[in-house]
Amino acid sequence: MIQSWPDHLLLVGCGNMAGQMLSRWLDCGLDPARVTVLRPSGRPVADGVAVVTDYPDALPAGTTVLLGMKPYQIAAVAAALAPLCAADTRIVSILAGTTLADLRARFSAARDIVRAMPNLPVGLGEGVTALFTDAATATQAKADVAALIEPLGLVEWIADEALFNQVTALSGCGPAFLFRFIDALARAGEAIGIPADQAARMALATVQGSADMAARAADSPGVLADKVASPGGMTREGLNVLDADDRLLALLTDTLAAARDRGEAMARGA
Ligand SMILES: NC(=O)C1=CN([C@@H]2O[C@H](COP(=O)(O)OP(=O)(O)OC[C@H]3O[C@@H](n4cnc5c(N)ncnc54)[C@H](OP(=O)(O)O)[C@@H]3O)[C@@H](O)[C@H]2O)C=CC1
Ligand SMILES: O=C(O)[C@@H]1CCC=N1
């Protein structure tokens, strides 16, 4: 597709997550002169990107604002930013646990508000971003936001905001769970006698190769697992441990549920 970028993009906060999004956009051709980053530290971001430590007096017409600070900072940010917003200011929020209703209440002048939940691999164009908005957001704004997010990887519109904490648990938090898995696979290898550095290399490459293969395969991951397992062989014995009482499934379900519950608590202001 031919990428059409916002004329003006203001990032409020540019840390781990928004920084990855911006890095990918710049790699894909976004003109840095269109970007302003507001961050208290004033730390430089990238060549040509303006960094400010305070809000401008006004926003250029049609500015797209990416809210990329921590969720608990929304009240302070909205107090300073909302008076600068007009009907044509587009707001994209990546704040976990911050509902569209909350954003609409705080940015009442803005018509187009979209919740986005990216994950860290967006910096490679291999991320996942969930999107949600409501009927008040214009169709063109939805399309423009989707086009902005598209270079980051998989884009999934979520029909029901009630599922937003669930998808955040799966894909937003997911990289942390998978990094933990890779680490645990390596440490388990070490525990059964493989030198630590070799186990770390082998665990990472095994996960990378398996994910790449699963992404290209016609078979589902569940079927692929069975293809690795020779009847009466080693893999089946290992799978029997993971599968006993749905151990791995139960562990991951508990993991996602805990993350989801925290999102719901954050939405209640906890
Ligand atoms: N980390 C992740 O994997 C994901 C995070 N998110 C969401 O992204 C958001 C940011 O998380 P993350 O990037 O991890 O956090 P970071 O701590 O890495 O980044 C926070 C950013 O906010 C800036 N900031 C701090 N105070 C203010 C303020 N008062 N006004 C404006 N900006 C401020 C910081 O500035 P400075 O750089 O100057 O310190 C920094 O750039 C959160 O809302 C989180 O829910 C969503 C999906 C995944
Ligand atoms: O931990 C958090 O709250 C955010 C949301 C998804 C990833 N990081």
UniProtKB/TrEMBL annotation:
EC category name: oxidoreductase
Pathway linked to the protein: Amino-acid biosynthesis; L-proline biosynthesis; L-proline from L-glutamate 5-semialdehyde: step 1/1
Localization of this protein: Cytoplasm
One GO CC annotation: cytoplasm
EC number in record: 1.5.1.2
Residues annotated as domain Pyrroline-5-carboxylate reductase catalytic N-terminal: 11-97
InterPro entries: 6-PGluconate_DH-like_C_sf, NAD(P)-bd_dom_sf, P5C_Rdtase_cat_N, P5CR-like_CS, P5CR_dimer, Pyrroline-COOH_reductase
PROSITE patterns: P5CR
Keywords linked to the UniProt accession: Amino-acid biosynthesis, Cytoplasm, NADP, Oxidoreductase, Proline biosynthesis
Family under the similarity heading: Belongs to the pyrroline-5-carboxylate reductase family.
Protein name according to UniProt: Pyrroline-5-carboxylate reductase
